């Protein structure tokens, strides 16, 4: 099973931007030293009290130069906000300078306020996502290619460089709504799933739908599933429950408010479901979050919960969010990472 860290380059309100970068790179260096499989970079915009990670490809390049072993992934690059050719060039560059360690994780993001700020209509996100992904794949696999779509058109362009990994770096796609599970299965790509907006117990039937579509389309294997989930470890159960509480609840309230606001944006799909999820996140109790939205405990307890999840949804890996909400002190996050790498990972490798 692959173990990764979902890293937002967190910034608390009390931390300067320079300190946020320094602490985040300290976490990256420790993960490389302690044997973590993959470092996953979020893409977050306009969150001054939460994150400085607005440019995942730039930070992926920086991480490539300070590590030698660990894979570097984007989770996710928000494709509808990107220029396809520029993205193809930059991601291929990262793959080259990292000696083929890039995992290209992509998605649409569920928050319409970012689209508004970028001047991209949210209702165009699905079509822009599909066009951008197709263009990037063609740019990587053809010496020259042409494309004519609704938003982009190119005539015999030759994108340089090509990725080191052939035919492309691994591509994983985030499922942001119920109907995208089967759609990603039909495409044949591995999938990111998450419980942040729902619950862990809801995932099994959704993953089944993904794998059924994957098999029906004739793709080899069963289809890979990677879970992004808040994880927290400490030496005692009491500490593991207490230390992340304020930060986790802060995150759920903030995301719940953003979801409710985005439900009112023109073109947002599943408006009622989005508003309902937002309301649930703003009112969820910490006990309910611990029960079905997070993996929290001592190393032995986390191992037991991961083993159960792996059996329920044939889990191929996790993207552990060790500081959801960005308010957990840096020293405690470092300790949680050490416990994950040294006491949990060896039980699965």
What does this protein structure show overall?
It is a single chain. By secondary structure, the chain is an alpha/beta fold. It has one domain: TIM Barrel (Alpha-Beta Barrel). It contains 13 helices and twelve strands. The protein has an eight-stranded parallel beta barrel with strand order 1-2-3-5-8-9-10-12, surrounded by seven helices. A two-stranded antiparallel ribbon has the order 6-7. Strand 6 (about 145-150) and strand 7 form a beta hairpin. The protein is globular, with a radius of gyration of 19 Å. The model has no long low-confidence stretch (mean pLDDT about 95).
Keywords:
single chain, 349 residues, alpha/beta, 12 strands, 16% strand
Please state roughly what percent of the residues sit in beta strands, choosing from under 5%, 5-15%, 15-25%, 25-35%, 35-45% or over 45%.
Answer: 15-25%
Task: Output the strand order for the largest sheet.
Answer: 1-2-3-5-8-9-10-12
What sort of overall outline do the alpha carbons produce when their principal axes are compared? globular
The biggest beta sheet is recorded as: 8 strands, parallel, barrel
Mean pLDDT: 94
In terms of structural class, how would the helical and strand content be classed? alpha/beta
Total tally of structural domains: 1
Q: Residue share in helices?
A: 40-55%
Total number of helical segments? 13
CATH superfamily: Luciferase-like domain
Report, as a whole number of angstroms, the end-to-end distance.
7 Å
The ordered H/E elements are EHEHEEHEHHEEEHEHEHHHHEHEH
CA radius of gyration is: 19 Å
CATH architecture: Alpha-Beta Barrel
CATH class categorisation: Alpha Beta
- SS elements, strand count: 12
Annotated CATH topology: TIM Barrel
